[in-house]
Design a protein that fits this description.
Blueprint: E1 3-7, E2 10-13, E3 18-25, E4 34-39, E5 45-51, E6 58-60, E7 68-73, E8 78-83, E9 92-98, H1 108-111, E10 118-123
Parallel strand pairs: 2-10
Antiparallel strand pairs: 1-3, 3-8, 4-5, 4-9, 5-6, 7-8, 9-10
Length: 124
């Protein structure tokens, strides 16, 4: 079955960096559009970034552009998100999602394939 397992979260100070990973299985990862979404405490989910199946095209929400970098390794069936210049408002549970981009990833149908998430906490 489809499985997405996120890892790499942690607690960092403002301005710090983290690298998140998402290990995928149960589907053809190399042919799948992939995204990262996040949910902050007490707030609704937010799409963060997306990447096409080859990795040639990447997409970002305005509030992370220039600070976050999405990438993928199709040989390892793994999606990454490099988080730099972290801010307190980046504190959230981060999930990876498949076959979607932008707010489409936030719909109930796509939420079902999210993993358990990895927590990122940024202290100011």
């Amino acid at each position: 079955q489809v499985q997405l397992v996120e890892s790499g979260g942690g607690m960092v100070q403002s301005g710090g960096s983290l690298r998140l990973s998402c290990a995928a299985s149960g589907f053809t990862f190399s042919k799948s559009l992939m995204s990262w979404v996040r949910q902050a405490p007490g707030k609704g989910p937010e799409w963060v970034s997306g990447i096409d199946s080859s990795g040639d095209s990447t997409y970002y929400a305005d509030n992370v552009k220039g600070r976050f970098t999405i990438s993928r390794d199709n040989a390892k069936n793994t999606l990454y998100l490099q988080l730099n210049s972290l801010k307190a408002e980046d504190t959230a549970l981060y999930f990876c999602a498949r076959n979607c981009l932008d707010n489409v990833c936030l719909s109930a149908a796509f939420r079902r394939s999210w993993g358990q998430g990895t927590q990122v906490t940024v202290s100011s």
